[in-house]
């Protein structure tokens, strides 16, 4: 048994994965001396610190996952390639079967350590923190690796706070007698102050862009994480009536300014008509001026993912985009469809017509009839021509008719690699940095035309969209009415447009659920899930009300017969997830349960 355990550890550490923080090749091939694992002699040299951290990288920089990556991530219930599939619990996407989280049918988990309430990775990080000083190396060397650990610990706690609010802040490796096992939850404010404290230390210790060791994170990755955390916490506090949100917005803005001074820019692939789409269909981001952190895969090391095979080739997870998202794309004059003279309201829902005169990112995110077509037609339901594969037809379906083209890598060579596919994953990109900066500055009342030109307009320039003018922000009565009806407030016109830009640019990058939660806009999930307009002449064999279900205006309504009231229903309790019942039983000091969820 001991020999098998050593063999397993060897595999985990030697195949830890390939990760890029700038533009260098990886070197995670040095193996841990197994006879030293677990004893005090392990913590001796810099190489021990490096090897220990190598096994931590793939826990957090997951990309598309590895192998088949077909597991389900809890508590969200989404596929392991969460960066792509995370939006399926938001108003951006729909799946062939409704998801429990947005439908408010999620049940409180029972088993200890389930439903996201798991601190095993924090324990792994704390083991490093409790032992790294034993290493015979300079403080600068030790702090460099400690900076990596603090970066991951800050990221881990940020994710836990988003899920649960108050969570125990742990600084030591726990054992069965540790008093912390019976400790109460640490207040959210205290946890987030600690997160920012260790993240600032990481920023101070991590190397500058270009001077990091091959394949390791640098200072800008930590700054981007700080910006993301600052925006989330600052806006969550504002819209949920918690104190001190402004200081986190200031953290976000300051971190963005440092990244903006580091030489990044919005990257546009030349010689293509769809530069936005092509950005997400690459084998490498080496030298890409927009990518701050990415995950690389290697066929040589048999370290790959089956993502492109099962996403591009056959739409395995059967997700598609919603009518609500499609309607939010602007027209090419920079106006919304509710006011632009370029949009004919009679064309709404008709894929062959409604993409005309729209933001080019629409046609580069959503497959129209015959676009982003697979090289192979062997897989039933995988193609989008001459028309989408909708409910009522055989094969894998785009249940709304809006099949996603973003992340589409049309390369049968990569599909045939199966679990060794090499499509790379951008994890942190500069476009998000700019969107964070624009929103934080707007929330602070400091979004001047200069700020908008540096951010929103720089992003729009990639696809040739008109610049947003602070002095002449377009009206959108439809979207304003939706905010008023579902959120109980209407953001300023400028903030509304910044939020729109974020939704359009970051769709299918696992940001929308978090955005709805922090804006206290969860009830946007109550907007009916609809798809394209059904045209009987295009689907002569389908029977309305038997094979396919439509709303009163003729749009596909995928959940009409499967959800009560034909729709998802958001409850305020969904702003936080529940703690597992067994954990509440084992440690009564974790109570009270999060609001609205049962505790027994």
What's the overall average pLDDT, rounded? 91
DSSP summary, beta strand count: 7
Oligomer: single chain
Shape: globular
Order of the strands making up the biggest sheet:
1-5-7
Helix content: 25-40%
What fraction of residues sit in β-strands? Answer: under 5%
First-to-last CA distance = 39 Å
Supply Rg: 24 Å
Number of helices: 23
Order of helices and strands: HEHHEEHEHHHHHHHEHEHHHHEHHHHHHH
Task: Characterize the main sheet.
Answer: 3 strands, antiparallel
Broad structural category: mainly alpha
Low-pLDDT segments, ≥5 res:
1-32
Descriptive report:
The chain has 600 residues and is mainly alpha-helical. It has helices at residues 2-14, 46-54, 57-60, 82-85, 100-103, 120-131, 139-164, 188-205, 219-239, 245-260, 275-279, 307-313, 323-328, 351-354, 360-365, 412-416, 430-443, 449-454, 456-461, 477-487, 493-505, 512-518, 581-586; strands at 18-20, 72-73, 78-79, 93-95, 291-296, 319-321, 425-429. The strands form 3 sheets. It has a 3-stranded antiparallel β-sheet. A two-stranded antiparallel ribbon has the order 2-3. Helix 7 packs antiparallel against helix 8 (188-205), helix 8 (188-205) runs antiparallel to helix 9 (219-239) and helix 9 packs parallel to helix 17. It is globular and about 75 Å long. Mean pLDDT is 91; it is low at 1-32.
Topology:
Layout: H1 2-14, E1 18-20, H2 46-54, H3 57-60, E2 72-73, E3 78-79, H4 82-85, E4 93-95, H5 100-103, H6 120-131, H7 139-164, H8 188-205, H9 219-239, H10 245-260, H11 275-279, E5 291-296, H12 307-313, E6 319-321, H13 323-328, H14 351-354, H15 360-365, H16 412-416, E7 425-429, H17 430-443, H18 449-454, H19 456-461, H20 477-487, H21 493-505, H22 512-518, H23 581-586
Antiparallel strand pairs: 1-5, 2-3, 4-6, 5-7
Helix pairs in contact: 2-7, 6-7, 7-8, 8-9, 9-10, 9-17, 9-22, 10-17, 17-21
